[in-house]
Design goal:
Layout: H1 14-19, H2 28-37, H3 44-49, H4 58-63, E1 92-96, E2 99-102, H5 130-141, E3 148-151, H6 161-172, E4 179-184, H7 186-189, H8 196-201, E5 208-213, H9 222-233, E6 238-243, H10 252-264, E7 268-273, H11 288-298, E8 309-313, E9 320-322, E10 328-331, E11 334-338, E12 344-348
Parallel strand pairs: 2-3, 3-4, 4-5, 5-6, 6-7, 7-8
Antiparallel strand pairs: 1-2, 8-9, 10-11, 11-12
Length: 354
């Protein structure tokens, strides 16, 4: 830095969080138990977004450890959506016939306190070797039914531009792979990583889509917006996924602000995830009925293109299904439709008798 001072670093220990005023020193002993099991990382960017005077700050809730994480409920599971059960070889998850996940590393810029991969991600990185990457490419090459490869992790945008570009090039060289996708938290968690070199690595010949994980409108600050714009200018369409989290975004007002902010940033809200039952995440749970009611309340309040699909990943690796409120009910030979204002209207169905 010009004045010779040390640039801020990612906070990775309870002591560092306490020193930054993000946890109380009195809580340090209880949080040490959590730190022994789950990785901690709060980037300088994220730390700058946290209101230290608000004990219920929704940004802090997502990233700062809590003593409740040490308690695992009976219905929580270390692999809640069956990644391991659907992994035929290292780095690959094959849950749906036409697409696979490729996890080139397991490091993230931050570690979300509700993450469904919290048992496997961490600063040691879990980076695939060249031999493991070649085996993954071979798996995809040998299965022509695979039409999309999704880079996830960990966070693929933690890779160097050179390595990320090489992985994308290898995948798009496979003839039957039609599209590529990247799931990332980087643009809102550490936007400085979205450099011109990284943006250039995203310029692929085959279509590449990016899904950005954003849970609160306050994450969409100018540096994050600039990172998203750099990615968009590289020709990458942007979608979002969010998790419905108690104390973070489980209100009509918070969700409306989030979805409107995403659309304003030219990011299409794609999924609102019901929380996966990972260990120590009970404090974030929102009842499914409440989630459905929240989505129903937003119908008609915000544009249809700003409404994501509310989904549950069925525990055990059985896939993702929409669970939003239905506005249509079968009634004799037709349907009854419920309008956004709650009124009900009959729709005669087409005659399918021949």
């Amino acid at each position: 830095m010009p004045d010779g001072s040390t640039p801020p670093r990612t906070l990775r220990t309870v002591a560092a969080l306490a020193g930054a005023g993000l946890v109380r020193p009195a809580d340090a002993a209880a949080l040490a138990q959590v730190a022994e099991r789950y990785a901690i990382a709060v980037t300088p960017h994220v730390a700058s977004l946290i209101d230290r005077d608000d004990p219920a700050d929704p940004i802090a809730a997502q990233y700062v450890p809590h003593a409740a994480e040490a308690v695992t409920r009976g219905d929580e599971h270390p692999d809640p959506i069956g990644d391991d059960a659907k992994s035929p070889l290292g780095g690959i998850v094959h849950r749906y016939p036409d697409r696979v996940l490729l996890k080139p590393l397991l490091a993230c810029p931050v570690y979300c306190r509700f993450c469904f991969r919290r048992e496997s991600v961490g600063p040691d990185g879990g980076v695939l070797t060249e031999a493991e990457l070649e085996a993954a490419y071979g798996y995809v090459r040998s299965r022509p039914e695979i039409r999309e490869v999704i880079l996830t992790g960990g966070d693929p945008l933690m890779l160097s531009p050179r390595r990320l570009g090489a992985i994308l090039a290898a995948l798009e060289a496979i003839a039957h792979v039609e599209t590529l996708r990247i799931h990332t938290r980087v643009p809102v968690a550490e936007p400085s990583l979205v450099t011109p070199a990284l943006a250039a690595a995203l310029e692929t010949a085959k279509p590449l889509w990016m899904i950005v994980h954003v849970n609160h409108a306050r994450e969409l600050v100018p540096p994050a917006l600039a990172a998203l714009e750099a990615i968009r200018r590289a020709g990458v369409p942007l979608l979002s996924q969010s998790v419905l989290l108690a104390g973070v975004n489980d209100s009509e007002a918070a969700l409306e602000r989030l979805f409107r902010a995403l659309i304003a940033a030219r990011v299409k809200p794609a999924y609102l995830h019901h929380l996966d039952p990972a260990p120590g995440t009970a404090r974030f749970r929102v009842p499914l009925a409440r989630g459905r009611a929240l989505m129903r309340s937003l119908r008609g309040r915000i544009p249809g293109h700003a409404l994501p699909t509310y989904v549950v990943d069925i525990p055990g690796g059985h896939g993702k299904v929409p669970v939003g409120e239905s506005h249509a009910e079968a009634d004799g030979g037709g349907w009854v439709l419920r309008a956004p204002d709650g009124s009900r209207h009959r729709l005669a169905d087409a005659d399918e008798s021949g």
